[in-house]
Amino acid sequence: MKTKQKIFLAKIIFKIIRIFFPKKIKVKRNDIEWNLNLSEAIDLHIFIFGSFEKEITSIAKKLQLQKYNQIIDIGANFGVQSLQFAKNFNDSKIYSIEPTNYAFNKFIKNLELNPKLSKNIYPFQMFLGSKEKEMPTSIYSSWNLESKETKHFKHLGEKKSTEKSNLLTLDEFIVLNKISNVDFIKLDVDGFEYNVLSGGMNFLKEKKPPIFMELAPYLYNEYGYNTEKILKLINSLNYNFYDLKNLKKIFDIDQKMTNIKDGSSENILLM
User: Fold this and answer.
1) What pLDDT score does 104 carry?
2) 86 neighbors 105 (Cβ within 8 angstroms)
3) Which of 23, 113, 125, 155 could form a disulfide with 33 if both were Cys (CB 3.0 to 4.6 A apart)?
């Protein structure tokens, strides 16, 4: 289902939910406390289903992540996956990176609600990219179901300011925080994946941690690259592509990318 179709369905559900519940609400789902705004699509999903993209944690479990792991959550939003990681992998260090003021402020509030989990989460408001590119002043990080603000013409996201962020490469972030090893990376940055990967080539080539990544070919041209370019970069890092359903290696990734419909995305594992 295309993102635009998902948002249309979420708007209908939101109107029904609002009959019974306030728009802003504090809830507990799967032992995690949340400050939610039900007019936001991801918040609404957590309110109804208890989590968002739960396959990310499932994959991490299949990779046998246990205690004392180091995890980097790139595109942390308001802690959607970081809090799940902290709950499921005791005593791990989770480095959570979110560039927008809007989502990062929500993230801090959710950390305050979960002191036992937040002690293992290290939040950073920054933009990971490449040194060749300037940091954008705003990026899409909100899927508001009632806002009249200008939205992306395909995925209906709403831009939010990155004013308080700094631009670093992944390699620089690793060095500055004295991170010797990483057991798992979640990468979901709505089209900026090439920038993040190209800025982390030294570390990724040396350590090659598993990467859970969103593929969204319809966004790539907007940010100055294409499918061929990002696949070439990933291959240069000696990564293979794996299907999330069975963790089997994907040999024809070009066909896989072709099968992703315009306006849609698909999650994949790199190892």
Assistant:
1) 97
2) no
3) 113
| Angstrom distances, CA of residue 20 to CA of 16, 50, 173 | 8, 18, 44
Per-residue pLDDT of 78-97, as tens digits, reads 999 999 999 999 889 999 99
Q: Determine if the pTM surpasses 0.85.
A: yes
Query: Would you state the pLDDT for residue 218?
Result: 84
Where do runs of H (alpha helix) occur along the chain? 3-20, 41-49, 55-62, 82-88, 101-113, 115-118, 170-176, 193-198, 201-207, 217-220, 227-236, 253-259
DSSP code at position 151: B
With vertex at residue 39, the alpha carbon angle to CA 35 and CA 42, rounded to the nearest 5 degrees, is 65
153 pLDDT more than 70? no
Rounded to an integer, what distance in angstroms lies between the CA atom of residue 187 and that of residue 211? 7
User: Which residues lie closer than 8 Å to 30 by C-beta, 6 or more apart?
Assistant: 50, 51, 84, 87
For domain 52-270, the question of CATH label 3.40.50.150 is answered with yes
Beta bridge partners of 34: 27
C-alpha of 171 from chain center: 19
Torsion of CA 113, 115, 120, 121, to 10 degrees: 30
User: Domain spans of the chain?
Assistant: 52-270
Which structure tokens are listed for 139?
């990026």
